[in-house]
Design brief:
heterodimer, A: about 200 residues, alpha/beta, three-stranded parallel β-sheet, two-stranded antiparallel ribbon, B: three-stranded antiparallel β-sheet, three-stranded antiparallel β-sheet, about 45% helix, binds iron/sulfur cluster
């Protein structure tokens, strides 16, 4: 490992020292391409974030890809209904690794204002591994940018080897998740027990 | 008016026989494509099942329900005031007009009066909503035609200015939750009207440049003129409202017909189209923006002082007497109505939304049959749907 002070000294002389891991993460973190995939109201704020005023391009994420095959990041922006949940998981499964998920808005986190509804999934983290949650209804575009920066920080800390390596470098970690189907009363499975466990009720 | 059932093109799902140059018959097959629910041009989670013969649409089936959020059921289980924030999330581009329609229905139910100042504020916010909705729709329509980014960026730049006003007034950019039964939630912040005036004065400049760039653009003309035609009689019998109906040349605007609010006091015209194609719908929206600007200019001159909410209006423990009421307004997308039945309890017994987007979408197949699949995308864009309102 090179000392931080020496590195800075060298950088002043025009010598840049880095590690493969840093370079790799730097590249990955600054070109996170989101899937252009909007579900409800929050998607409009996601769109606003990509427009001139907030300009998500400053963080390297302006390339919204319509195809999951070209996307790195799924922004679940809006209410996931039980009719839509299977397609959301299917889209996630179609994305290549490395891939990340941002749950944007109260609905994607927990069902939000529509939680009591019979057709609303109570949080996408029951079915997908969510990296960042953004509260708000809808979150402001700044909040989305903040989430993106947080995600970049997370990517920076991931090591190429060892226990902290990202999922795509770990052969044992799953990269696809079971797609739920319509059951008699609910989607089946209603949640992925590997990802989400109901909070025990303490009486 | 007779009921029209015939569609412009005969609905045959058989393959039109194709012949090669030497006259021999070629094999043909129908192709079924499910566009959506995740598709860049379906405006949210909407699915069109199209049957294609080559490039031509021979059948189109809209599939809804991917965003069914139980709005009506939730509203029947909560107090009248409790549904106000939910109405924001119906058509999430125009929360203030949704608020107004709902408030109007409840005011009719409970017989509340709206003070003069509140009526002015309602008109100003509703027309600002119309401005931002129509500009964004035109941006999205052009995006569907392949003008990626630029027109939408321009539209959103203007939209953001109006959203800043909404934020100053209501505290939220999109989900304003501002109207109350018998008035508005709070008074205008200081200097707000001057900010509106500035935006209203600047808006024609943006419109001029937008129209100069686009209205006679060859690609736009080729992609929109004669595309997605809607016959006038069919539009009337299908219950189409809003810019879609007026683009067919039917003079029907609830602001003029229903005399709700204080629209009678303002001078404005209703732009009408002639052909009922996508181009007319696009132009109607731009012309409506100019009329809205006229209303805004007149309203801004005359805002009176006084309270913004009926002093008799009770927000907590609100129980209208048994009865029913229908309140409707001319939303940016068409007739937005709320139908309420009260049984005297704090919750509505029945709460029903008449969503313009859903009803305008019902004739999508009639507009698209016989045209190419690329035109179906543009036609869908010109209907101006918001899925929150279609599925509720
Ligand atoms: S969190 Fe709020 S704004 Fe976002 S999709 Fe849900 S209801 Fe709409």
């Amino acid at each position: 490992m090179i000392e931080e002070g020496l590195k800075n000294e060298l950088a002043k002389q025009g010598v840049v020292l880095t590690t493969l891991q840093e370079l790799y993460n730097w590249g990955r973190g600054n070109s996170v391409w989101p899937l252009s995939f909007g579900l409800a109201c929050c998607a409009i704020e996601m769109m606003a974030a990509s427009m001139a005023k907030w300009d998500i391009a400053r963080f390297g994420s302006e390339v919204f890809r319509p195809s999951p095959r070209q996307a790195d990041l799924m922004i679940v922006a809006g209410t996931v209904t039980k009719k839509m949940a299977p397609q959301v998981v299917r889209l996630y499964n179609q994305m290549p690794e490395p891939k990340y998920v941002i749950a944007m808005g109260a609905c994607a986190i927990s069902g939000g204002p529509f939680k009591q509804g019979y057709n609303v999934l109570k949080g996408i983290d029951r079915l997908l591994p969510v990296d960042i949650h953004i509260p708000g209804c809808p979150p402001r575009p700044e909040a989305l940018l903040h989430a993106l920066i947080t995600l970049q920080k997370k990517i920076e800390t991931q090591a190429l080897t060892g226990p902290n390596r990202p999922r795509h470098l770990d052969a044992a970690a799953p990269s696809e998740f079971p797609v739920p189907e319509f059951g008699e009363h609910d989607i089946v499975p209603a949640m992925n027990p590997r990802l989400w466990k109901p909070t025990p009720v303490v009486r | 008016m007779s009921i029209v059932t015939a569609s412009p093109v005969p609905r045959n799902y058989e393959v039109i026989p194709k012949t090669s140059l030497d006259g021999s018959e070629l094999d043909g097959e129908l192709l079924e494509v499910a566009m959506g629910p995740q598709h860049p041009s379906t405006h949210g989670v909407f699915r069109m099942d199209v049957v294609l013969d080559g490039e031509t649409v021979v059948k189109l089936k809209p599939v809804f329900g991917y965003l069914h959020r139980n709005h009506e059921k939730i509203a029947e289980n909560t107090s009248y005031l409790g549904s106000m924030p939910y109405t924001d999330r119906l058509d999430y581009f125009c929360s203030l007009t949704n608020n107004w329609a709902y408030a109007l229905a409840v005011e009719r139910l409970a017989g509340l009066q709206v003070p003069e100042r509140a009526e002015f504020i309602r008109i100003i916010t509703a027309e600002l909503t119309r401005l931002q909705n129509h500009t964004s729709v035109c941006g999205f329509l052009l995006q569907d035609m392949g003008a990626l980014g630029t027109p939408l960026m321009y539209a959103f730049r203007e939209r953001e200015k109006i959203l800043d006003l909404f934020e100053a007034l209501t505290g939220a950019r999109m989900m304003c939750n501002y109207m109350r039964f018998g008035g508005c939630r709070c008074d205008l912040p200081p200097g707000w009207l001057d900010r509106v005036r500035k935006i209203v004065d600047d808006f024609p400049r943006f419109l001029d440049s937008y129209e100069a760039l686009l209205n006679t653009n060859e690609i736009l003309l080729a992609r929109t003129q004669g595309v997605g035609r809607l016959p006038r009689a069919l539009a009337i019998s299908a219950g189409i409202t809003g810019p879609m109906l007026r683009a067919c040349g039917v003079d029907y605007d609830i602001r003029k017909v229903d005399h709700y609010g204080i629209y009678d006091r303002f001078e404005f015209r209703i732009p009408l189209g002639e052909h009922g194609d996508v181009y007319d719908r696009y132009m109607i929206r731009l012309l409506e923006i100019r009329e809205s600007l006229k209303i805004l200019q007149q309203a801004l001159k005359a805002v009176p002082g006084g309270p913004v909410i009926d002093p008799k209006a009770k927000l907590r423990g609100f129980r209208p007497k048994a009865g029913e009421a229908y309140g409707r307004i001319e939303g940016p997308k068409g007739e937005l109505g709320f139908y309420l039945i009260s049984d005297g309890s704090p919750n509505p017994y029945r709460y029903r939304v008449r969503p313009p987007s859903l009803i305008n979408l019902t004739i999508l197949e009639d507009m698209c049959l016989g045209q190419s699949v690329a035109d179906a995308v543009v036609t869908l864009g010109s209907v101006d749907i918001v899925l929150g309102e279609v599925d509720r």
